Amino acid sequence: MRSVLLIVVTLLLSGSGQAQTSVAERLIARGQADSARAVLNSTATDAASRYWLGRLSEVDGQAKRHFREVTRQGGVHADDAHFQLAESAYSDPRGLYLTARRTYQSLIEAYPNSPHYPMALYRIGRTYQIAAKPGSDGFDTQLDSARVNYQKVLDSYPGSHIAPHATVALVTLDQQAVGDRETQATTLPAAPLWGGDVSTFEAAGRMQKETPAAGAFWVQVGSFSKRSSVDALVKRLTGSVPSVRLVDGGNLTRVQVGPYETKDQAERSGRHISRVEKLKCRVVSDG
Question: What average pLDDT score do residues 127-142 get?
Answer without folding.
Answer: 87
